[in-house]
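Sequence, please.
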């Protein structure tokens, strides 16, 4: 079965960016230019713009511009989600953010990954691992969430943390790499 590079990407398999993916990325860049230029727009206008590009946008979900992503089409936001200014989501595969989750400014969420073997990397292959963020999570400003991480409901991620592993529901983690802390 011959699958497209996009199908491989979405399945989390090794893929090589091609013309179809370049066109999808260009469409996302054009959308971001519109979204980020809308700074003072009403919340309903911003919500409508998000709905044009994202897989799912829950009721009252808000992203303050500027915002940056690879495609947008792999992002699902629950009800009442809030992302502050300057957030980045590299969404080569699915990113799911649960209801009422609050994300501080300059948070970076990366599903994009690369082979660990130099020869494979040199060939231009890459892959992605999905990120799942539960409901009622708080992620402090400047945190980085790495590929494949799941953050459980009610967790708290300290500002500036680098989250390299799954975070249990209700846990508080902080640091680089992020480690459990007393609440």
């Amino acid at each position: 079965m011959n699958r497209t590079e996009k199908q491989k990407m979405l399945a989390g398999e090794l893929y090589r960016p091609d013309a179809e993916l370049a066109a999808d990325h260009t469409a996302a860049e054009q959308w971001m230019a519109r979204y980020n230029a809308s700074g003072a727009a009403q919340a309903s206008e911003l919500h409508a713009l998000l709905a044009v590009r994202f897989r799912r946008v829950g009721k009252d979900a808000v992203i303050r511009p500027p915002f940056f992503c690879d495609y947008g089409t792999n992002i699902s936001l629950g009800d009442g989600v809030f992302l502050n200014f300057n957030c980045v989501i590299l969404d080569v595969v699915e990113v799911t953010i649960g209801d009422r989750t609050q994300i501080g400014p300059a948070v970076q969420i990366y599903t994009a990954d690369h082979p660990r073997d130099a020869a494979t990397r040199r060939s231009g292959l890459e892959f992605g691992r999905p990120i799942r963020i539960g409901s009622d999570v708080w992620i402090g400003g400047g945190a980085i969430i790495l590929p494949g991480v799941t953050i459980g409901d009610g967790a708290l991620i300290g500002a500036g943390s680098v989250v390299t592993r799954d975070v249990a529901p209700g846990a508080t983690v902080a640091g680089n790499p992020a480690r459990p802390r007393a609440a």
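The helical segments are 5-10, 19-36, 43-53, 118-122.
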